[in-house]
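pinging the channel bc i need a second pair of eyes. not urgent but kinda urgent?? the chain im working w is below, pasted from the shared doc
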Amino acid sequence: MEVKLWMVFEAVAATEEGVEGALDEHLEKLGNEPKAEIVEQNIDKVEEVENPHPSIEKGYSQVAEVVVDASSFEESVALVINYGPTYIQIEEPDLYELKLKEGQETLQDVADIMRRYAEMGVGGMLVSKTGEK
């Protein structure tokens, strides 16, 4: 069953040159995904912003909004993990029935990606959670 996603991406850099083209390249890769299709796309102009990061006084930002039709919930999760949108919203369907196999495969994909991040030194393993929620 297809899942329609509304995704927002933001590129931020200290220089205008660092932002220009970054989202175009990112969305081109997303558009080449075999199990997903970009059906709408809007990329804003690069804008100067104040304090885009605690260590940067002035920077540049560009925002893109896209609507993507993904082939399944599993593919939707993979797109979010692999492309890192700033914001994601499921637009359709209103009801999605997830079979045990699809749920298991989705969770295993997330576990595999988290393990790879930990191996690269950019993530870690949650050993125990705190008492806070």
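so The chain has one domain: 3-96. and Helices lie at 16-19, 22-31, 73-83, 100-120. — does that match what u expected or am i reading it wrong
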